[in-house]
From TrEMBL:
<dbReference type="Pfam" id="PF16169">
    <property type="entry name" value="DUF4872"/>
</dbReference>
<protein>
    <submittedName>
        <fullName>BtrH N-terminal domain-containing protein</fullName>
    </submittedName>
</protein>
<dbReference type="InterPro" id="IPR026935">
    <property type="entry name" value="BtrH_N"/>
</dbReference>
<feature type="domain" description="DUF4872">
    <location>
        <begin position="155"/>
        <end position="324"/>
    </location>
</feature>
<dbReference type="Pfam" id="PF14399">
    <property type="entry name" value="BtrH_N"/>
</dbReference>
<dbReference type="InterPro" id="IPR032369">
    <property type="entry name" value="DUF4872"/>
</dbReference>
<feature type="domain" description="Butirosin biosynthesis protein H N-terminal">
    <location>
        <begin position="14"/>
        <end position="142"/>
    </location>
</feature>
Length: 329
């Protein structure tokens, strides 16, 4: 058996920030989950639909692992990423740092993990691994999944080898903080303005504020988009509120990040952004509730109301990001 000592197995709400928190606390850097999410410029929006999808997906964050890369760049952390098509090499990439006393981040398909109660394929799931024995791997996942958990080595191997949307080739990673670590406070404004710029200037209409506006138009058609609205609409709403988003499609996390920032920086632009995202978070939860009601009742007016609110949210978040883009270091 090999186990990293002094692991703070504090489960939080979102998988990637949960894993990052474990790795960074082991390096002596203890940041809140909203701060990790914000410093990684994690907020976004995507309306994702295609012919091979059973139902549209609303996403509220950047692509899997992009948050980790942005956070590492901003804090000047050494990010060592390893990928391979070999299961044997993949295990060596994980066992070696754990044997040396360092936890490891893994990207995998959560469907195969023993402790996951919701059996849905998601290849962008991230966990921290801190130990193993002859039969099991010891992981830290979100609070929702149990925090400090274990899964069989066989299930872990399947999860890491899975192929499909958002999967990576047995991706594992470690983080090392430099001795002269930049002050996280100094990285707040660059992280916010980078996030705002991406949100305000999306390359396609499915992303950012344009994506929210598009969702407001298309959500009205969702009853015609599926033969099983009682299943698909509540499931879409559940993913917005409960699937590691922290509620309100990650807007609660970003609201709390901005609230922390206002305690560190005196800025009217920050306060404007915080006020708008506080209101937006409430409205996103209302949208999810309306989508659920539409699926359960089959009544289209609930979706029309959700679409109207999404139109308001597009304008509201655009205004918030315009204010935040004016921040100066």
């Amino acid at each position: 058996m090999s186990t990293v000592v002094d692991i703070d197995a504090r489960g939080t709400q979102h998988c990637e920030t949960t894993a990052l928190g474990v790795l960074l606390r082991h390096q002596g850097l203890d940041l809140s989950e909203p701060m990790l999410f914000g410093l990684g410029s994690g907020l976004s929006f995507v309306y994702w639909d295609s012919k091979n999808m059973g139902f549209p997906f609303l996403g509220g964050r950047v692509k899997p692992f992009e948050l980790t890369r942005s956070l590492a760049t901003g804090l000047e952390l050494e990010l060592l990423v390893q990928e391979t098509t070999s299961s044997r090499r993949a295990w060596e990439n994980v066992a070696a740092p754990i044997d040396a006393g360092h936890p490891v981040g893994l990207q995998l398909d959560s469907y195969h993990l023993d402790y996951f109660t919701s059996k849905v394929h998601f290849g962008g799931h991230v966990v921290a691994m801190y130990g193993y024995d002859d039969h099991a791997a010891y992981l830290v996942d979100t609070d929702q999944q149990g925090g400090a958990v274990s899964t069989s080595l066989t299930s872990l191997a399947r999860a890491r080898a899975a192929r499909g949307p958002m999967t990576a080739k047995h991706r594992s990673f470690t983080l090392t903080a430099p001795r002269d670590l930049p002050s996280p406070q100094d990285r707040i404004i660059p992280a916010i303005t980078a996030c705002a710029d991406a949100f305000l200037n999306p390359p396609i209409a499915n992303l950012g504020h344009r994506g929210i506006e598009k969702a407001g138009k298309l959500v009205r058609t969702w009853l015609q988009r599926t033969d099983q609205p009682q299943r698909d609409l509540p499931q879409a709403a559940l993913l917005m509120e409960k699937a590691g988003t922290g509620g309100a499609l990650f807007r609660n996390l970003y609201r709390d990040f901005l609230a922390e920032c206002t305690e560190l920086h005196d800025s009217s632009h920050l306060r404007t952004g915080l006020g708008l995202y506080t209101e937006a978070a409430t409205l996103w939860t209302e949208v999810a509730a309306l989508i659920t009601k539409a699926g359960e009742s089959g009544e289209a007016p609930f979706l029309h109301q959700a679409g109207t609110i999404l139109g308001d949210l597009s304008r509201m978040e655009r205004e918030a990001m315009q204010a935040l883009s004016r921040l100066e270091a």
